Amino acid sequence: MLAAAETAKVDPMHQFTVEPLLGHDWNVAGYNLAFTNSALWMLITAVALFVFMLGGMRQQLVPGRWQMMVESFTGFIDDMLDANIGKNGRKYLPYIFSLFMFILFANILGLMPLGVVGVHPFTFTSHFTITGILAILSFAIVLIVGFWKHGLHFFSLFVPAGTPLPMVFVIAPIEFISFLFRPFSLGLRLFVAMMAGHVLLEVLSSFVIDGWNAGAGFGVLVGIPSFVLMVAICALEILVAGIQAYVFALLSSLYINDAENLH
Amino acid sequence: MPQIDQMFEIWSSQLFWLAVIFGLVFFVVGKGMVPKVTSTVDARDTQIASDLAAAKAARDAADEQEEAWRTRENANRESAQAIVGEAKARAQAATEARLAEAQGGIDARLAEAEARIAASRDAAAAEIETVAVDAAQDIVRQFAHVSVDEAAARAAVQEAMTRGQ
């Protein structure tokens, strides 16, 4: 893939490169903590989310549009937790809401066509070093809640209710392995979905540019269909941005449900 | 693929900044702002529920009052009808009494008049008898030159009148 990228004028993977902006040599105990473009976009996402949430702080009895929008987002996550976890789900609202909104804003900000004005958005959710950490965080919460509430009885999670005794020895290892795979599937799903979309858009845009550079015939034949497809895929990517954030939050809440309401 | 190529040089920076920034998001947005938003929504829901309950209570009270008013109204109507019926009966009784009284007066006057007529007729008959007796005496005296006494004449007249009737 690197060899192909070197020959092409547009490198579809270049957009994922993390570049230090400040403090190349901020090292703590041998670990580099440089403020990168990835960190910058995390900060931008956090600030955008904060500004968005300010609309919900008016706390009026009859909400305006903005307040209504904030309330519909909290209500959406609240309903999801209520449906998946039950009454106890309310206490996970801050975490799941932060997770959902942080991922959602990151995904959507990463899709913004800011390249037109020379700013290149960095989609940090297309890095498994980010999605993996978030997945491990969710998984850690599941483990902590599970062992805190149920102690060693939490291991009965690996024996589904109503399993015949002889089958326990077969099913328990399978359940255990599928349980261990949860953080990987959780982190990889978001990373792959975001990266694939961005690569696809970048490849199509390189078709548009290379097609027109090769002449008007190629431009009409390749460039225009690619451009139309890009527009369509941009719409799809906005959908994917929302769905992936939702799936991440939904699966996190389902896993927490296992720990909260052990069968 | 930079995600893999750069993994070993960037993971600590990614972890650190994600921890810092997501931590900020969690504590500021998740812990700070979300409870306020949900409390606003909850307050609104309870407000709406209590308003609905108050409206329902008010409607029930109104229904109850209407029911009471209807009962009272029916009772009033019945008593009014009783008064009207009583008045009607009293008026009818009074009318009948006066009619009976008038009828009695009329009957008495009729009887009196009949008695007077009968008396007049008797008087007239007696008169006619006297006149007839005188006339019979005169007729007999002039045509037969026989003088008849009054008693004989009267007897004759009475006989003739009785036959003639």
TrEMBL record, chain B:
Record's bilayer topology term: Single-pass membrane protein
Any Pfam family: ATP-synt_B
Keyword Transmembrane: yes
Keyword Transmembrane helix applies: yes
Alphabetical keyword list: ATP synthesis, Cell membrane, CF(0), Hydrogen ion transport, Ion transport, Membrane, Transmembrane, Transmembrane helix, Transport
Similarity comment text for this entry: Belongs to the ATPase B chain family.
Official protein name in the record: ATP synthase subunit b
